[in-house]
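Practice problem: predict the structure.
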Amino acid sequence: MKEGQKLWTREELILAINLYCKLPFGRLHSRNPEIIHLAKLIGRTANSVAYKLVNFASLDPSLKARGIKGAANISKLDNEIWKEFFNHWDVLPYESEKLLAKFEHTTIEKLYHIPERELPKEGKTRERMVKVRVNQSFFRNSILASYNNTCCITGINQTEFLIAGHIKPWGIDEKNRLNPRNGIAINALHDKAFENGLLTITPDFKIKISSVLKKQNKVETIQDYFLRYDNQPMILPSRFLPDTEFLKYHNNERFKV
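Answer:
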């Protein structure tokens, strides 16, 4: 470590991973306003934060699979916090958002603009409602960032049309509800088809259309909106590649062959 540098703390690293999840891969640079803001919060330079995010990229298995390397200077604590975060998607995202609120000197409700009128005054019900809202927002931000705000089926990049869809449904796999590798960025129409098994993505990342829709091959809208994508490759994310085990589940358990 260079003279004058200070070691990163556990809290700082958790905040850095939180931001890593929510930024598109191409925006991990010191000029990014969100990186500059985090740097001010934790008393570091924007260059230092940007470098740490690139460090985390070197630990990201999805990037490794694509041959993309981050920085090489990984500390033992970097590795530990990365593993802790990525093995506890059911806990750490929300905890990291609460930590961010603490550093912002505000409440998590205010940080996420959740109106008080929509919440009970106190108690476990309030905490549960806040947690669900925050987690859903974190998941959406992570997925859209990974896919660069682009639908994995059509390439539509109007965020108002996009949904952070789950491969294994929210209600089935609680531990992986917030796992970005259990998500895809998809437009609302195709999300509905995916949810109802009329469309799937194979473990080799090909789009597959159900025979239920293929039987309507003379209907122009079915041709235009669905059949044209059959057997085409999905648009891959820049990181957090869909987990093949989740895709196998959807192919075998949800898809109407």
